[in-house]
C-alpha cells in the first residue's frame, strides 16, 4: 500500500494589533422626549400618527360623504400608532388626545363604505377628547335605521370638549321630486328636527353648527328651515360649509330654479355607491327632467 500523505497543520492567523485597538461601540443614551416643550412633542406625535406608508396611504377608507370623509387625515399603520401609545402612560395620554381631537367623527353610520368608527364605537375614555362631530342627513330617508337614536349609549354626555357639530344634507325629501316615494312630505323633516333637538340638548359645551349639502338642497327648504330653527333656539352659532356655498346674506329663493335632476341624483347618492352615481351623472348630463 502507498504511504498516506501527511496533512499540513492549518495555521490560524493571530489577531492583529488593529483589532485589539478597536474601541467598543458607544452606548447611546435614551432621547429625552418628555423634556421637550409640549409644542414640539405634539409635533412629533403628529408625524407618528398621521404619516402613512405607501400602502396605507393609498387605501383610504374614510367614506365619500361629508367633512368626515373629504377632510379626513391619512392615518399611520396600526402598528405605528400602538407602538407610540405603549411608550408610557404620559405619552399615551398626550398622543391619544391629539389623535382623537384632530379628527371628525360621525354620530351615525351611513352607506358610503366608511370603515372609520362612529361616536358610539369610540372607547369611553377617549370621547372627552373629541372636538368635532358630524351628522349626515338624507340617508335612508324612507326608513331611518333604528340605531339612529340619541340615548345614554351614544355617549354625548362624555364629550365635554366638543365645540363643533357639522350637518351635511344629502337630499331634502320634502321637495316635489320625491312625491310618490316618500312616506309623507313632513315625515323626514320631523325625524331630523327631533333628532337635532335631542343632540343639542346633550351637548351643552357645543358652540357652533356648520351646515353643508349637495347642490339640490335649498336653504329655504322645509328640512333646512327646521334645522336652522332648532339651532337658533339652542343659541348656537350658525356656520356654512364650503361645498354648497351658502352665506348669511344669500337666499336660495333669489337664485335660478334648481334642475329637478339634481334632487334625483342627490337622492341616489344616499343609497348607492359614489362610483355608480358618478357614472349615471356622466351618462345623463344632457337630460333635463320636465315638471
From TrEMBL:
Start-end of Acidic residues biased regions: 14-26
Protein name as annotated: Uncharacterized protein
Family matches, as InterPro entries: AN11006-like
Region (Disordered): 1-30
Domain of life: Eukaryota
Species of provenance: Penicillium steckii
